[in-house]
Amino acid sequence: MKPLQISAETAIKLSKSLSVPIEQIMHMPPHILIAKIAEMEAKEKE
């Protein structure tokens, strides 16, 4: 599986919000990553 096509800023933001290493985020399946990004955005809006 190839690494995800996300920016470094997005990877860093996700790793901080999910408390997960950046390497793990870069190798996450795309559908899970999209769900995590949606969760992160929902938390930011609150």
Question: Which descriptors apply to this entry?
Answer:
46 residues, mainly alpha, 70% helix
Number of structural domains: 1
- The low-confidence parts are none
**Helicity level, as a percent range?**
55-70%
Sheet-strand content, in percent, reads under 5%
Number of strands: 0
Globally, the shape reads globular
Question: How many H/I helical runs?
Answer: 3
C-alpha end-to-end distance: 34 Å
The gyration radius over C-alpha positions equals 10 Å
What class, by secondary structure content? mainly alpha
In N-to-C order, the SSE pattern is: HHH
Main sheet overview: none
Q: Quick check: average pLDDT?
A: 83
Structural account:
With 46 residues, this protein is an all-alpha fold. It has helices at 8-18, 22-26, 30-45.
Brief synopsis:
The chain has helices at residues 8-18, 22-26, 30-45. The protein has 46 residues and is mainly alpha-helical. 70% of the residues lie in helices and 0% in strands.
Secondary structure layout:
Blueprint: H1 8-18, H2 22-26, H3 30-45
